[in-house]
Structure formats: structure tokens, C-alpha cells
């Protein structure tokens, strides 16, 4: 008999898995997948009593070249994006999450979240929504695959159109 365990061996103890810091990515346009991911994240953060950070990304590629070079336009867009994230933060607090942080970034959502936001905030779980249909813009939901493959933490992808989700009564 080999001292090496086989891959199909179930000779291990089940251990409780607890997350200590949670990050949820939301689109500034309140897509269905973002709202569902947010709902899941606040439910988990409240139940675990853990800090929650909410992030959205200002997609500078959506701005025309003149707007992207205008400090006033950029400042206005940053302010709008931060206001949106703060609305999500207020909802999380009202739901019962005690420790909520608002974060924004700029650029391509998947890369900014993986390369900048996660290393800075250091969550051990990222929750992100995913649309099931193609979009013409680069929504955070369309970046779920990139984040799941490249994030240094665990990632939960919440579908916008989950056909198996419980229906409201």
C-alpha cells in the first residue's frame, strides 16, 4: 500500500470555511447581475459579521477623447461614480452590515479590480455578477471570467438570469 493518498480518497476532515473580508463589484448602471451580486454579498457580510467593500470602476474608455482630457469632466464623472457606490454602501448599512467601505477605480474593470483593488483591500472573497447575454460595453459582469481566472482570492459569480433561482411567491 502506498503512503501517497489517491485523488479519489475522502480521507480528510471537513473544516469550516470562513471568509474575513468581502469585496463586491457593481456596475454603475445597476445591471441585474450587479444587484444580485450585491444582494448576495450583503447577505453574506451580515451573516458572517465581516467587513464589506463595494467597488465600481469608471470606464474611461467610454469617454470621448475630449472628455477624457478635460479635468472638469473627469472630476464630475468620478463624483457621479462615487455617489453611486455610496448609495450601495448606504443600502448595505441599512441592511445590517456594520463595516462598509466604498471604493472606485478607473480603467478596464477586470484588470483594475484584480491588479489594484484586491491587492490594496485584500479580501479573501470577491463577489461579482455576470450577465448571461453579450453586451456591447465592457460591464463588470462581462469581466467575471477574467476576475475568476486571475484574482488571488476566491471568487463567486452570481448570474443575472439564474434559471434555477427560487421564484418569488
CATH architecture: 3-Layer(aba) Sandwich
How many β-strands, per DSSP? 5
| Termini separation | 56 Å
Q: What is the CATH homology-level superfamily?
A: HUPs
Strand order of the largest sheet: 3-2-1-4-5
* Class from secondary-structure proportions: alpha/beta
Q: What gross morphology would you assign?
A: globular
By CATH reckoning, the class would read Alpha Beta
Give the oligomeric state of the chains in this entry, treating copies of one chain as homo and distinct chains as hetero: single chain
Share of β-strand residues: 15-25%
Main pleated-sheet profile: 5 strands, parallel
Given as residue ranges, the uncertain stretches (5+ residues, pLDDT < 50) are none
Q: Helical stretch count?
A: 5
CATH topology description = Rossmann fold
Give average pLDDT, whole number: 84
Helix/strand order: EHEHHEHEHE
Give the fraction of residues assigned to helices.
25-40%
Rg, rounded, reads: 18 Å
Count of separate structural domains:
1
Structural summary, described in words:
This protein has 169 residues and is an alpha/beta fold. It has one domain: 3-Layer(aba) Sandwich (Rossmann fold), CATH 3.40.50.620. The protein contains 5 helices and 5 strands, in the order E-H-E-H-H-E-H-E-H-E. It has a 5-stranded parallel beta sheet with strand order 3-2-1-4-5, with helices on both faces. Strand 4, helix 5 and strand 5 form a beta-alpha-beta unit. Helix 4 packs across helix 5. The mean pLDDT is 84. This is Universal stress protein UspA family protein. Pfam families: Usp. Belongs to the universal stress protein A family. It comes from Loigolactobacillus rennini DSM 20253.
Amino acid at each position: 500500500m502506498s503512503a501517497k493518498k489517491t485523488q479519489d480518497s475522502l480521507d480528510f476532515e471537513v473544516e469550516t470555511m470562513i471568509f474575513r473580508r468581502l469585496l463586491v463589484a457593481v456596475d454603475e448602471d445597476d445591471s441585474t447581475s450587479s444587484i444580485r451580486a450585491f444582494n448576495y454579498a450583503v447577505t453574506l457580510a451580515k451573516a458572517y459579521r465581516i467587513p464589506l467593500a463595494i467597488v465600481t470602476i469608471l470606464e474611461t474608455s467610454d469617454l470621448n477623447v475630449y472628455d477624457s482630457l478635460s479635468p472638469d469632466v473627469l472630476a464630475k464623472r468620478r463624483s457621479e461614480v462615487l455617489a453611486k457606490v455610496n448609495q450601495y454602501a448606504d443600502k448595505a448599512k441599512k441592511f445590517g452590515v456594520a463595516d462598509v467601505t466604498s471604493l472606485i477605480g478607473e480603467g478596464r474593470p477586470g484588470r483594475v479590480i484584480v491588479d489594484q483593488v484586491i491587492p490594496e483591500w485584500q479580501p479573501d472573497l470577491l463577489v461579482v455578477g455576470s450577465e448571461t447575454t453579450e453586451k456591447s460595453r465592457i460591464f463588470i459582469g462581462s469581466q467575471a471570467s477574467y476576475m475568476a481566472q486571475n484574482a488571488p482570492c476566491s471568487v463567486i459569480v452570481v448570474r443575472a438570469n439564474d434559471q434555477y433561482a427560487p421564484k418569488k411567491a
